[in-house]
Input
Amino acid sequence: MGEANTSSIDDDLLLKNFYAEVSEVERDNEVARILSCFKLNAFEYLNLSFDSSPEEVKKQYRKLSLLVHPDKCKHPQAKEAFSALAKAQQLLLDPQEREYLVNQINAAREELRAKRKKQLKKDTASKLKSLVDEGKYEQEYEKSDDFQLQLKLKVRELLTDQEWRRRKMQMRISEEEGRLKKDEEESKEMWKRKREHEEQWEGTRENRVSSWRDFMKGGKKVKKGEIRPPKLKTEDPNKSYVQRPVKRG
Output
């Protein structure tokens, strides 16, 4: 009897360990899925359809966040996956961010519909069926895995294009801000040099005034120790440049 009880306990322990291992594998797989998601689409992080409501977003976040919570998941990147989910929920609950994302999804859907319409023109049977079903044929098609995959890829394409344009615009703005800052710094440096020059000019004003007064009084004064050139003797006949008196008749 005792052996039977021991065997039962061992089985329960094995079963518990088995489910724990399965749960851990599931957690690791979810972390890997989250980290492989397209970074610009919050719906992908939460593994939701594009028409999910805010309430569905909250519900899915609670479910997945418990699955990959760093305190319960041993995966080394569990914290990173948990943060990605939190950011995705924040974006989808923000009216402006959600509107931007939904607009891109709608634009992608319209592109695929236009492409589908061109294809139906070539396929008479499909076109007739769509007319007979009064649009139900197309509605069913858009629910298909094939259309959903195309939509997912098209959304990625549009979001990537928009992000690239945003980054280019941001780069241009940064370059313009840098140019304006450089011009401002050069202007400040120019005015600084101008003020310093004016201050130096004003500082030497007394010396200049004094020198002018001395000049007006007796010409330039000979500084102490300065040697002045000898005066030319006008009576020296050998100097060709000496002006001789003009004889008058």
Summary: The CA atoms of residues 5 and 11 lie 10 Å apart. The mean pLDDT is 80.
